[in-house]
Amino acid sequence: MRNVCVLGAGTIGSLIAGLLSRAGDYTVHLVDHDENALKRAAEDIDRQNLTTLAVDAIHGSGLRHCLSDYPFEAIISALPYYCNPLVAEYAIESGRHYFDLTEDVTVTRYVQNLSLGAETAFVPQCGLAPGFINIVANDLMGHFDELDTVKLRVGALPVHPSNVLKYSLTWSTDGLINEYGNFCYGLEDGHEVVLMPLEGYETIEIDGLLYEAFNTSGGLGTLADTYSGRVKALNYKTLRYPGHCEKIHFLMRDLKLNKDRETLKRILENAIPKTVQDVVLVYVSVSGKQRGELYEENYVKKIYPQTIYGKLWSAIQVTTAAAVCAVVDQVLNRTELYQGFVTQESFRLEDFLENRFGRYYR
Q1: What is the SS3 string spanning 24-74?
Q2: Which of 46, 52, 76, 336 has CA atoms 20 to 30 A from the CA of 12?
Q3: Is residue 118's pLDDT more than 90?
Q4: How far is CA 350 from the centre of its chain?
Q5: What is the greatest pairwise CA distance in the chain?
Q6: CA 231 vs CA 184, 188, 228, 248: distances in Å
Q7: 185, 224 in Cβ contact below 8 A?
Q8: Nearest 5°: phi and psi at 172?
Q9: How far, in Å, CA of 91 to CA of 322, rounded?
C-alpha cells in the first residue's frame, strides 16, 4: 500500500483522494483546516483506505506535526498556489515526494531551486495546463526533425453559458485571476520572451464552434526552458467564448482590479455561478520539418463531465485530478527514475494514457 497525503479538500482535492483511495493500493490521508469540507469530501468518497484530518497546513506547525505522526510517502498539494512554497519546504525537510497543481511561474521556480540535490521527486504543475498539455506537446514535438511553431491552447468552459462573461467558475478563483494578471512567457525566434496577459488575441474554430484565445500566465509550464533554442515560436493561450477577453480586460485593466485582486475575487464569486456541466478543450498544433518538408500535426480533444463511483464530476475536476493521479502513480511505482525536480514533459504520452488514472482522458 502506498501511503499519501492530499492537502486540500476542495473540489479537486476530494476527487484526487477518491481516485487514489478507491484504486486499492493507496492509503490516503485527506487534510484540510475546514471540517465541513472534510465532511463533504468524505460523503463523496468511499471511506475505505481514506482518513480525514482537520489540520491547518499553512499556519502554525500543524503540517509538520502531521508529517511526523504519519508515514506518508508523498505529499500532493491541492491548495492554492501561494501555499505551495511552504508545503515544498516541509516535503524537503521530511524527505517526502512532492506534487502540486500550481500554474504560478514564481512558485515553480522556487520549488525547482529548493529541490536541487533532493533524493525524492519534486513534481509541480501536475494538472491540465500546465500538466497534460505539456505531455501532449512534447510528444508531438518529438515527431519532427526541425521545429518551427508550437501552439498550446486549453479552455475549461460551461457547455451552456448564460452570463455576460460566458463563463463559470469551474476551478480556483485565485488561480484564474493569477493567470489573467501575471506576465506570460514564450519563445520567439528561439529565445524566451515576456508576453502580456490578455494580449495576443486570436480566434480558433473547433468542431464548427468559434473560440477566442489570448495569453495567460503559467500554462506553458517548463516547456520554454526545455525547448529554448530548439523551436522558433512557442506559446500558450487560454480558450474562451468570444467576448470574454474584452470584458476581463475592462475589469482588470480599465477598472484596475488587477491591483485589487481581493475585490475582483469577491465580485466574480458573487456574480458568476459554478457548474458541473462543463467541457475541457485541449488543442496543440506543431509545425516543422519532417524529412525536409514542412508539416503540421494537431492534437484536439474535448472532455466532458464523467460519473465516477456514482457521482458526477465536472470535466475540469476529472482532467485535473486524473492528471496528478497518473503522474503520482508513475513516479511512486518507479521511484528509482525520478529524483529532484521533474518536469511534466518527462512523462511519455503513451504511458500517461495507458495509466489507470490517465485513462479518464481517453
Answers
A1: CCEEEEEEECCHHHHHHHHHHCCCCCEEEEECCCCCCCHHHHHHHHCCCCE
A2: 336
A3: yes
A4: 19
A5: 61
A6: 18, 8, 7, 31
A7: yes
A8: -60, 125
A9: 22
